[in-house]
Amino acid sequence: MPPTLRPGAGGSERDVGAESAGVRTLRPRDMDLGAITNHSTLHAKPDGLVLQYGTAGFRTNAEHLDHIMYRMGLLAVLRSKQTKATIGVMVTASHNPEEDNGVKLVDPLGEMLAPSWEEHATHLANAEEQDLQRVLVDISEIEAVDLQQDAFVVIGRDTRPSGEKLSQSVIDGVTVLGGQFHDYGLLTTPQLHYMVYCRNTSGRYGEATIEGYYQKLSKAFVELTKQASCSGYEYRSLKVDCANGIGAMKLKEMQHYVSQGLSVQLFNDGTKGKLNHLCGADFVKSHQKPPEGMEMKPNERCCSFDGDADRIVYYYWDAYGQFHLIDGDKIAALISSFLKDVLLEIGENLNIGVVQTAYANGSSTRYLEEVMKVPVYCTKTGVKHLHHKAQEFDIGVYFEANGHGTALFSKAVEVKIKQLAKELGDNKGKAAKMLENIIDLFNQAAGDAISDMLIIEAILGLKGLTVQQWDALYMDLPNRQLKVKVADRRVISTTDAERQVVTPPGLQKVISDLVKKYKFSRAFVRPSGTEDVVRVYAEADSQENADSLAHEVSLAVFQLAGGIGERPTPSF
Ligand SMILES: CC(=O)N[C@H]1[C@@H](OP(=O)(O)O)O[C@H](CO)[C@@H](O)[C@@H]1O
Ligand SMILES: [Mg+2]
After folding, report:
1. Tell me, which fold does domain 328-471 have in CATH?
2. 127 in a labelled binding site
3. DSSP single-letter state for residue 54
4. For the structural domain made of 33-186, what CATH number should be given?
């Protein structure tokens, strides 16, 4: 029996004298199902549209997302009630084209939504109008949500034109379920994660305002640059491609806080170009070439953010006109080697782990394991998997090859380093203070282009490393990524952190045989969680061989996994 209606929408009206939370948590006055349905008709779901909460939430053309936003507002309230904490909702489609948009929920400690709730999100998003009430009731029951509990939701959005209206639909969903909210408006994705983390740790992590974010990061950064031995102009200037996105606005706001230690020159700042079009971290990484709209001189250190500023990659032209990409793998190598050195200096033996995905370049894994002697772990694609694994170490460094990552420090480590910074003198004390600032500079809620950029700049300055020296840590194996269109990408299932195909039968054997034809080679395929494609990755001893292996694997996918449209042709 569905609960009866109560008049009026939203608010935080209490059901006085209700039974204690537990067995059946739903009571007539807890959810105004009538109002939920009425408002839902204003955010009607297009008939037959099925979307899935993927690697990074829902993402598609912005025109198909209004109902999703409303429903994610509803879900955020339930999650907030259940966790008794502030929940975040970020409206963004990251590196996707400007016409797209998307949404993801942020859990209490600034991390990605728990997997069981991703399933609820998918059910709720795909419920037909007449089933919406039932699905909401089901979720509340399964998760034993105490509907008496207050709910608080914070919302942020990137610069997409559709963002404002879609945020409004989220707010509609939040208020109709009686939730309170704060709309931060324009934010980078990691800034929203930061806000959620701050709010749920009573300000211990930082102040939950944009000013608080700038203050925390810039204070740590400026302290670090004071300790740097190299502070010449070339160490302080950096060119940044902002993908015509939110990163430009936020970096402009932040510029004067860090100007003492860093001078940034912004390109693709959104004044002319289109979001992510021929620029941004994803473009640079996948095309392995510089973005348009950036003036680069040989040996100048440059970097690119993606559309919502949670990824960063570095690069430069050498004196011979060759382009060098420094991706997430090399960022992880720089950071973990720096952390190892600092710990050695302090005399602390902590366990550091580096977490990667199958897309990590084979050379990076070899370098980390064999030269740096740090343990490396491989997880499935998607930051939530890496983040989760990284939490197992005293210090967990995680990066996707595309430049999304950060480092996590256990509470015990943070406390210990703070204490050592106070107690120790001389070089040990200096190193402990350095590490204390580095910890503050990392966004431990999520990978963050601004925070990562400041960390990299600080480390290069402290170590006196040029971009070429950093690049020379190891040589990437030539690699290629391709996409194959198939009728239903779910026919491909994988195991071993996505490095082996399970279905369709026979495909793995073909891939393994192809890989054997080349030297230093590796290849794998997996269905994308953000696009309707199957991704193919290959690496080998030469670019020609990597291209050729990737192409052959694409053909195998096309043939064995129901390819549609044109057969893949060699495109390099
Ligand atoms: C190969 C690749 O770069 N995949 C990206 C991409 O996921 P796919 O599931 O591959 O579409 O978008 C994710 C979200 O931004 C990111 O976490 C991931 O690394
Ligand atoms: Mg992004």
Report:
1. Alpha-D-Glucose-1,6-Bisphosphate; Chain A, domain 3 (3.40.120)
2. no
3. B
4. 3.40.120.10
Q: Which ligand 1 atom lies nearest to the CA of residue 286? A: 3
Protein residue closest via CA to atom 4 of ligand 1: 381
Category of 209 on φ-ψ map: left (φ > 0), alpha (ψ -120 to 50) or beta: beta
Return d(Cα 482, Cα 552) in angstroms, integer.
11
Atom 9, ligand 1: which residue's CA is nearest? Answer: 529
pTM: 0.93
CB of 359 shorter than 6 A to ligand 1:
yes
Distance of CA 553 to the CA centre of its chain: 28
Cβ–ligand 1 contact at 535 (below 6 Å): yes
What is the DSSP code (8-state) at residue 3?
P
Ligand 1 atom showing the smallest separation from residue 95 Cα: 15
Please name the residues in contact with 358: beta carbons below 8 A apart, sequence gap of 6 or more.
378, 381, 497, 498, 499, 524, 526, 537
CATH 3.40.50.11540 fits domain 211-215+222-324: no
Residue 175 makes CB contacts below 8 A (sequence gap 6+) with 9, 10, 73, 181
Say if ligand 1 is within 6 A of residue 446 CB: no
Q: What is the pLDDT of residues 96-139, one digit of tens each?
A: 999 999 999 999 999 999 999 999 999 999 999 999 999 999 99
Does the annotation mark 94 as catalytic? yes
Q: Is the ipTM of this complex over 0.90?
A: yes
Query: Where are the chain's structural domains?
Result: 33-186, 211-215+222-324, 328-471, 479-560
Q: Give 206-255 pLDDT, tens digit per residue.
A: 999 999 999 999 999 999 998 876 555 556 899 999 999 999 999 999 99
C-alpha–C-alpha distance, residues 358 and 223, integer Å: 36
